[in-house]
Amino acid sequence: MQQTATTLPQHYTDTPIYELEGKYLFSSLWIFVGMANELSKPNDYLRIEIGERDVIIQNCGGRLRAFLNSCSHRHSAIHDQACGNRKLICPYHGWSYDNEGIPTGIPGKEDFPQVYAHPERFALRQFELSTAGHFIFVRLVPGDADLKAFLGESYDFLVNASLGLDKKMDEYNESIGANWKVVIENALEGYHVPMVHRATLGAIKQFSTRRQDIVDHMPDASGHSYMVHKADEKWLRKWRRFETSLGRWPFKFDHYVHQLIFPNLTVTSFMGYSFHIQRFHPDAVDQTTVHSRIYSVHCEGQTEQGTSIMRTVYEEGRRFTREVFAEDRRACENVFHGLRHADWPAVLGKNMEQRIGHFQHNYLKSMGENT
After folding, report:
1. What are the two backbone dihedrals, phi and then psi, of residue 348, each rounded to the nearest 5 degrees?
2. Is residue 344 domain-resident?
3. pTM of structure
4. At a CB cut-off of 8 Å and minimum separation 6, what does 262 contact?
5. What integer pLDDT is reported at residue 1 of this predicted model?
6. Looking at the 3D structure of the chain, how many domains does it have?
7. 16 pLDDT band (50/70/90 cuts)?
């Protein structure tokens, strides 16, 4: 029996539903915001939008904290750049805050006796923040499940992926003219590869071509899922000739893995020697920004030859990833164009597109009665 999509075209195209997603879905879940290894120094910060909130993630004396980007005085943004290194000082009137977000420096403090007497009452609004390895998550509205419980099986994967992260080999922010769920769903299936990625993904020799060597996993009702695609045995035998030169890295496996951390984070890797981390940020009902990072991993005992091999692998991977992204962008924009004219639910393949059905089910569950 064919599977019918549980979401409808209006879930992707209606502005009122998009606005409800920011208010309910993104506010209630643990949302990935960035990497702790990029905020290693005191006062390192980044700004990020979560739902309807502008949030600061800041290294406060060695501890990461999440604050609303709004001064307690007259609500100016405290940081006006996307990232940097700067103390919590409002650029409008100079109010400064300590590592707890409590105002400690107030020009003309005699005019604010109530603040001077009880500064803790005027602390910056703070949100829950937790980490899995280097992966930082924030939750705007307190809930029952801590981050480890929310992530389930994915928690250990993120911790292990963090073990050897070394250099950031590539980073970009690119826009796609489509709803964020279209972009996520495109990432959850390989059915489109022969048509969309014929000269890129469809042409590589590293992966097994047997259908039984591609296995989807949907371990629980959290919305997280992952796919494991085995390496081609012939290619793997050739690759192993270089293992002595390449050295050892901490999280090694003989397959490709694609992890979705619900609702909008994907982490992919082939064999664990690099990790591709993508956050899909909803900008508007018809616009999504993809924030992409590729990290290398540190290899113990790598020879000069191994370093040269991996340098070539990383350079080719950077070029390849951008080519694949350009192909996906065109595909997603075509899907979104068609959604604007459709008035019936999509049809999903029972095997090749089952992760999409899982995503849609958990999206509707998270939205509750708000759709």
Report:
1. -110, 135
2. yes
3. 0.96
4. 29, 222, 223, 224, 225, 359, 362
5. 46
6. 2
7. very high
